[in-house]
UniProtKB/TrEMBL annotation, chain A:
The keyword Nucleotide-binding does not apply. InterPro entries: GvpL/GvpF. GO terms for cellular component: gas vesicle. It holds the Pfam family GvpL_GvpF. This is Gas vesicle synthesis protein GvpL/GvpF. GO terms for biological process: gas vesicle organization. Keywords: Gas vesicle. It is found in: Gas vesicle.
Automatic annotation (TrEMBL), chain B:
The keyword Thylakoid does not apply. Keywords: Gas vesicle. The gas vesicle shell is 2 nm thick and consists of a single layer of this protein. It forms helical ribs nearly perpendicular to the long axis of the vesicle. PANTHER family: GAS VESICLE PROTEIN A1, GAS VESICLE STRUCTURAL PROTEIN 2-RELATED. This is Gas vesicle protein A. It is found in: Gas vesicle shell. The gene is gvpA. Gas vesicles are hollow, gas filled proteinaceous nanostructures found in some microorganisms. During planktonic growth they allow positioning of the organism at a favorable depth for light or nutrient acquisition. GvpA forms the protein shell.
Amino acid sequence: MADETGLFLYGIVPSDVEPTPDAAGVGEPPGEVDVVRHRDLAVLVSEVGLEEPIGRPADLTAYQTLLDGTAEVAPVLPVRFGTVVTGPDAVTDLLEAHHEQFAAALDEFEDRTQYTVHGRFDEQQLISELLAENPDAAALAEQVRGRPEIESREQRIRLGEMIAQAVELRREAENRALIDAVGELAVRHAPRQPSDELDAVNVAFLVGVDDEEEFVRVLEDFAEQRRDLIRTRLLGPLAPYDFVSAHQLVE
Amino acid sequence: MTIATTSGGGQPGSALERGGSGGSGGTLADVVETVLDKGVVIDAQVSVAVVGIQLLEINARIVIASVETYLRFAETVDRLNIVPEDQKGLPDLVDGATGAVTKGKAISGLGKAAQEISGAVVDSLGDRGSERERERPRRRRDEER
């Protein structure tokens, strides 16, 4: 019953990419990573049982580890997690049908890498600042402070709503400031949806290898200037997950 | 002030934390946020024999302001100047980090994969003192696909 297998696709790469022996794929035990080549392109794949549930945390981590590791040595076009095809023929069909788009996209990612900047507000610090800036909210805060929720629910909701709106404005401003600070050091940037109501910044940047050092330095400054207000994290170098949307084959 | 570190790297004393590359150092929440719903989509019409694409979209990414949020902000106002600032430690931060995924009620119509992912995040973070109790999702639930 579990005999049928398919190929899990990780990413599209130039055909000279060779998986290292320790490359581990999805599945339990981890699948062996292989390449299916066609002309000057290739796809990183591994065999998976079709009955096997894929999407365990280890699978996601394996997927990202493989793609990020590949991105360090070669351009790679991530294929959406969970894509499984019947076999090598399907992979070559795919490469044949979209050769030009894939090749062009890989060219664009040559010597470029993604970094994601994700920052979260310190809630207390943020709200203190917002109240200091907004007399109406501060007055409302005085009214509710220390009173049980049951008595002050209306005011609390109003206050909370004012704060939520101010947080949103602040988030927009911080994202703009971040994008401005990075400026020309990124080839492209892609704003990401906030993942939490205390998200301060969340932007993906595509950065050329020659600019990486300067890019990190600029972010150090950005983070330092906001040390008490925002916990700023830099994720990467990553495969260009946020920059493939233009190459999606939706139709 | 001590900064809760969920990731390796970064200069000592730097306000910028580093991590999240290649699944090393980053949290599972980072991995989920980084890779899900990204990448080239291969549609079935290109004559490719696509066996299955599990489109894992986590709608919880979209933050919807709610009364619950408002009340929580108001509660924070209550705590202002009472709690010393440096008491904000790991549980707060980690709790926030799960936000992206544990708003599980917003995940609907997903395959078991996404449920397992969110389950795992809850599992891995739940024992760190997260104050938000969540239903522990069933793992490896049998589901028709």
